Amino acid sequence: MKILIIEDEPKTGKFLKKGLAEAGFVADVAADGRDGLHLALTESYDLVVLDVMLPGIDGWGVLREMRRAGKQVPVLFLTARDQVDDRVKGLELGADDYLVKPFAFSELLARVRTLLRRGNAGQVLEITKVADLELDLPRHRVVRAGKRIALTVKEFALLELLMRRQGEVLPRSLIASQIWDMNFDSDTNVIDVAVRRLRAKIDDGFDVKLIRTVRGMGYILEAPEP
Q1: What per-residue confidence (pLDDT) applies to 122?
Q2: Which of 158, 181, 199, 208 has a CA positioned 20 to 30 A from the CA of residue 171?
Q3: Domain that holds residue 106
Q4: 21 is a domain residue
Q5: CA 43 to chain CA centroid, nearest Å
């Protein structure tokens, strides 16, 4: 899943991006309100972490313009302003949660996961199934044919992406940007190695293979036709 962080304090932005990456998320960081609003309106995100005191356009203005444009992505306000009136204003503008600095990253991560589950209700199931493969997002658990499969954080994120877009051929460039937050370099085999390792865990030992390579295009996960 992809998160937008709009935060003008470089250390905080870097800390959040690193922590979220370690938790299996891909994050973009914008250092001012105008850049953040542009990304929020032109890119697809599952959640926005938004500071209030921003150069260019403050957090109130960013959120107001997002909602005016019909962007209903969940928004978590993260700010040093802890007055009740500020919290009320943010919620009235359409924020989904409010966390005051300084904060414990564990609490922020818990709130992020809660908002993602709430925001995806009715759109992306907490438990996703393809054939006999089951991905339990809240519990970070993968089971195939009743057998528990241990995955690394990146492998889990890669499998989630493939399952959420099952039946769709995903190019290496998209996988690189979504999972590794990097531009695809045709000289690197990072994506191929990662998919090979995931396939070894998901498909090896099972009669039905779910992950396959589409030569010259990318990778696809789908249940074979009966």
Answers
A1: 42
A2: 208
A3: 2-119
A4: yes
A5: 13
Residue 15: its pLDDT value, please?
Answer: 92
Average pLDDT of 9-30?
90
The sign of the dihedral angle between the CA atoms of 50, 52, 55, 61 is positive
The residue type at 56: G
Other Cβ atoms within 10 Å of 126 Cβ, number: 13
Same domain flag for 92 and 144: no
Averaged confidence pLDDT in the chain: 85
Nearest to 195 by CA among 155, 144, 167: 155
Task: Specify whether the CB–CB gap between 210 and 57 falls below 8 A.
Answer: no
Give the contacts of 116 (CB within 8 A, at least 6 positions apart).
Answer: 1, 46, 47, 74
- Which residues does 42 contact at the CB level (< 8 Å), separation at least 6? none
The total of structural domains in the chain comes to: 2
Domain assignment present for 226: no
- In this structure, what token pair is assigned to residue 44? 């697809």
Look at 35-39, 48-52, 176-180 and tell me which has the smallest mean pLDDT: 176-180
The whole-angstrom separation of Cα 23 and Cα 176 is 17
Question: Which residue matches tokens 């209030």?
Answer: 52
pLDDT band with cut points at 50, 70 and 90 for residue 85: low
Pull the structure tokens for residue 216.
């010259």
Helix (H) or strand (E) holding 8: none
Q: pLDDT category, 123, cuts 50, 70, 90?
A: very low
Structure tokens at 207: 């009669």
